[in-house]
Give the backbone structure.
Amino acid sequence: MEREMTQTTARRIAKDCLAVRVRLLNRVVTGVYDDVLRPLGIKVSQLNVLVVVANYDSPTPTKIGKVLHMEKSTLSRNVDRMVARGWLRIATGKDVRTHRVTITPKGRALLEKSLPLWQQAQEESEALLGERVTRAVCQAADRIWADGKS
Amino acid sequence: MEREMTQTTARRIAKDCLAVRVRLLNRVVTGVYDDVLRPLGIKVSQLNVLVVVANYDSPTPTKIGKVLHMEKSTLSRNVDRMVARGWLRIATGKDVRTHRVTITPKGRALLEKSLPLWQQAQEESEALLGERVTRAVCQAADRIWADGKS
DNA sequence: CTCACTATGTTGTATATACAACCTTGTGCC
DNA sequence: GGCACAAGGTTGTATATACAACATAGTGAG
């Protein structure tokens, strides 16, 4: 395998790869929110779960996973941690298989306390990405969410 | 803590949050590449490291971390795994602290084999995001990379 | 030259993530 | 009713990620 060929291939991928770029943005933006939220002991990943639970009426883990495009096993353990912290509660309905996830008063309080810090991180991120990119990212996510519903 | 307040806060965050959207895109796009690359036993996260190593001349882990905006500890362990698979090699220079990371022949071969699959995932992702978003994501990443150099 | 500081990496710990295999429970077909 | 199949969750395993604490080795000021 010759060096020039490797160089060419590597440059080809580096020049255009969407994955490396989306993953980079993810790390940078997640870092902005996590830094700001740190005093509250919550990370943006968990805040997002809290928001989904508050927005849907006691959704099942599967439902949350569908909204966030996360594996059920990932959700399972993320929810576990949040239950352990007292932010969420699990209730079992008639169908013993399906669990309903509910936000606790402690979870509500945390959500309220998060709002101003979230706002700060939001502004910082928008400034970092610029208005055009911010709009594009929202558009892309909305498209994915719309696809899921059809 | 009242229900209405929680609802309002949750909707406020859900409506605009950049973090949840960037993280969503990251999961979806990473999934597209990982699915396509699976037959080769490499994930796009490691392919990206391989590309950086091939593009810079035997960079240090710190250098790779700076390019990808990754913690040095993250890089340390990612590189370990790739060394264990025989795709990378570590050499120590005069400064015993600094390690130089080199791609092995096996790593080169893997990179070449990855190219057509990467191309396929790239096209699939571009179609998924649309041209406008694709351009915006590249613009945002390029801005971050430019900032790092100044 | 020495000491404080910085740069580079590694390790301990915790979270986030996904895939595969599994268990349990509804459901629908016959 | 009984059985095959689908749906919902959990667990085992592995990777990816970050922060904090540490170890070690250059570097520069005096």
User: Anything to note?
Assistant: Chain A has one domain: 3-149.
